[in-house]
């Protein structure tokens, strides 16, 4: 089945803040692939990280799971027995579609879906946690608390994979990488109007921070080994090991 094309911002419309509602959930696979450079590569590598880090009889968490792409990737990569994946999202439109999406794919590790706020869940006996483009939607002052909660729920040697859209303290670099990201979107078929309307909708909703800020905060949360393992323009993916 092919993904439904994202044309949500194709016509001039009133500037409402971006939200993960039914209209976004319906086109999400197409939207994220055409909007985030390196997304497919990150998903493919989540399988590889799961193969290395997920231990027997432990839990894996996919926080802000949307349609469950990271959960399915973890499931595909897990080599140990008795693991369980817990996928959490606070958008009922996303979670409803996630259920169908996951059922449509074979997965060997059980995936439990939870409708809820990732800031309120309890994390226990975890060997891997994925925060794949979710932290950027949480209020900045609440991010350390969430990372500390993840850290305390991870077993020793456990992995947090954090992917984010980032900003740069150097204005020249920031402007250049935003322009290259917009060029990537144009090459993927988005018009100037779509790009600018979505940019306005994401203003004050998706709050990027610098890579250095993310790395320092992960260290403050307790993680001993932290590194960016992938960067595509202004999109990064970071690994943090307890
Ligand atoms: C960009 S999407 C994540 C993409 C997904 N992880 C993937 O790999 O395909 C962000 C998701 O985070 C969810 N989200 C944002 N804030 C949340 C919160 N406080 N609690 C739970 N989910 C949240 C949104 O509903 C949305 O589905
Ligand atoms: O389209 C953009 O500019 C984005 O920032 C992409 C982005 C993201 O990074 O989460 C924003 C919202 C949608 O969830 C999908 C992708």
From TrEMBL:
**What GO terms in the biological process aspect are recorded for it?**
tRNA wobble uridine modification
- Might you give the EC number(s) for this enzyme? 2.1.3.-
Q: Where does S-adenosyl-L-methionine bind?
A: 39, 64-66, 89-90, 117-118, 132, 199
Source species: Aliikangiella coralliicola
Could you say which enzyme class this protein belongs to? transferase
Give the gene name. Answer: cmoA
- Into which family does the record put it? Belongs to the class I-like SAM-binding methyltransferase superfamily. Cx-SAM synthase family.
Domain (Methyltransferase) ranges: 62-158
Gene3D superfamilies membership: Vaccinia Virus protein VP39
Q: What is this protein called?
A: Carboxy-S-adenosyl-L-methionine synthase
Per its record, the protein catalyses: prephenate + S-adenosyl-L-methionine = carboxy-S-adenosyl-L-methionine + 3-phenylpyruvate + H2O
CDD domains (UniProt xref) = AdoMet_MTases
Top-rank taxon of the source lineage equals Bacteria
The UniProt keywords, alphabetically, are: S-adenosyl-L-methionine, Transferase
Task: Report the protein's function.
Answer: Catalyzes the conversion of S-adenosyl-L-methionine (SAM) to carboxy-S-adenosyl-L-methionine (Cx-SAM).
The record's note on quaternary structure and interaction partners says: Homodimer.
Which GO molecular function terms does the record list? carboxyl- or carbamoyltransferase activity; S-adenosyl-L-methionine binding
């Amino acid at each position: 089945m092919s993904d439904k094309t994202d044309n949500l911002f194709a016509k001039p419309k009133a500037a409402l803040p971006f939200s993960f509602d039914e209209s976004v959930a319906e086109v999400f696979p197409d939207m994220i692939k055409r909007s985030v450079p390196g997304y497919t590569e990150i998903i493919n590598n989540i399988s590889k990280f799961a193969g290395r880090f997920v231990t027997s009889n432990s839990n894996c968490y996919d926080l802000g799971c949307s349609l469950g792409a990271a959960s399915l990737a973890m499931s595909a990569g897990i080599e140990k027995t008795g693991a369980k994946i817990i996928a959490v999202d606070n958008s009922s439109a996303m979670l409803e579609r996630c259920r169908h999406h996951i059922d449509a794919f074979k997965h060997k590790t059980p995936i439990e879906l939870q409708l809820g706020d990732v800031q309120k869940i309890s994390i226990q006996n975890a060997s891997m946690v994925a925060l794949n483009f979710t932290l950027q939607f949480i209020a900045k002052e609440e991010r350390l608390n969430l990372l500390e909660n993840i850290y305390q729920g991870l077993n020793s040697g456990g992995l947090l994979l954090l992917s984010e859209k980032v900003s740069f303290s150097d204005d020249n670099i920031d402007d250049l990488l935003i322009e290259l990201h917009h060029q990537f979107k144009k090459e993927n078929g988005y018009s100037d109007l779509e790009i600018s309307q979505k940019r306005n909708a994401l203003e004050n909703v998706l709050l990027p921070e610098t890579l250095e800020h993310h790395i320092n905060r992960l260290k403050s949360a307790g993680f001993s080994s932290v590194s960016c393992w992938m960067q595509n323009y202004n999109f990064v993916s970071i690994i943090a090991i307890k």
